Amino acid sequence: MVQDGVQFGKVAVLMGGRSAEREVSLMSGQGVLQALRARGVDAHAFDPAQQPMDELQRQGFARCFIALHGRFGEDGTVQGALELLGIPYTGAGVMASSMSIDKVMTKRVWQAEGLPTPRHVLLQRGHFTAAQVCDIPAQLGLPLIVKPAREGSSLGVTKVTTASQMQDAVAAAVALDTDVLCEQFIAGDEVTCPVLGAGSDARALPVIHIVAPEGQYDYQNKYFTDVTEYRVPCNLPAGEEAAIQALVVKAYRVLGCRGWGRVDVMIDAATRQPYLLEINTSPGMTGHSLVPMAAKADGVSYEDLCVQLLADASLDYGANKEGAA
């Protein structure tokens, strides 16, 4: 049910920030800002890279819609600041945000819970040798994927097809992060599935089948071209969509996420086994973004989605939590 925007009070849409995904965040934030205003919400743009966070309290903001992506926005840092300020915010809380942005930590949690995710090798800046890098294809096979552990939007990601590419691929990733994830490549269908809600109320939206040119679903093809095909309905074999939805909801819950998120999955072409890749706890809201696309397929407009997410804004340590003042 769409709520009256006035009841939310003064709302800050956090956008921009200091991460490598600043440009995308500004696009997401402007979309959310316009949508909330269209629904009667007293919404204002707020860029944490240009104003200190305590200005939110001084300026009387009652809630925050987090449209920040990547570090200093999706990693628990902004969430922690908002907890201290006592201002409810959209999306995952401090611990879930900080775990989910780290692809290696996410994998460890999923593996501990018996959930399928590709095999990997972790490299840490300053603690690996050229010989160790050269040995990774023997461990994971070729092709394989090399990416920073804590970046999004496919930044710094390389698909390595020959062993000679390994050093350059690792150098590109380590330039963006101290931790580099080398991951088994799963050949097959690439899909993504958003999740809304929290705990037992969390539910999956329709699965989106992503068909990118030559399989290159990179930063450019995500946000700045129209050559990638998004299939909703996903047209997967009978029963697969429901199985993937059940898997991503479990993956979301075990990380303690709330509000919303989007889980990326690869389906092995030979076995049809789905493998969890990563989770985004502050997904994009641009004209090319996938959560609004899945919501629309489920009968929820972009504006209504934004209002619903804002209505679910909360705190980890709010007045209703044990031990709160």
Characteristics:
single chain, 325 residues, alpha+beta, Rossmann fold, D-amino Acid Aminotransferase, Chain A, domain 1, Dna Ligase, domain 1, 3 domains, four-stranded antiparallel sheet, 11 helices, disordered C terminus, D_ala_D_ala, cytoplasm, D-alanine-D-alanine ligase activity
How are the SSEs ordered, and which strands pair?
Blueprint: E1 10-14, H1 22-38, E2 42-46, H2 55-58, E3 63-66, H3 77-85, H4 94-100, H5 103-112, E4 120-124, H6 130-140, E5 144-148, E6 158-160, H7 166-174, E7 179-184, E8 188-196, E9 203-204, E10 208-211, H8 219-223, E11 229-231, H9 240-254, E12 260-268, E13 274-280, H10 290-297, H11 302-311
Parallel strand pairs: 1-2, 1-3
Antiparallel strand pairs: 4-7, 5-6, 5-7, 8-9, 8-10, 8-12, 10-11, 12-13
Describe the fold and architecture.
- The strands form three sheets. Strands 8, 9, 10, 11, 12 and 13 form a six-stranded antiparallel beta sheet that branches. A four-stranded antiparallel beta sheet has the order 4-7-5-6, with helices on one face.
- Helix 1 crosses helix 11.
- It has three domains: 86 residues, Rossmann fold, CATH 3.40.50; 141 residues, ATP-grasp fold, B domain (D-amino Acid Aminotransferase, Chain A, domain 1); 65 residues, ATP-grasp fold, A domain (Dna Ligase, domain 1, 2-Layer Sandwich), CATH 3.30.1490.
- With 325 residues, it is an alpha+beta fold.
- It is 32% helix and 21% strand.
- The C terminus is likely disordered.
- It catalyses: 2 D-alanine + ATP = D-alanyl-D-alanine + ADP + phosphate + H(+).
- Belongs to the D-alanine--D-alanine ligase family.
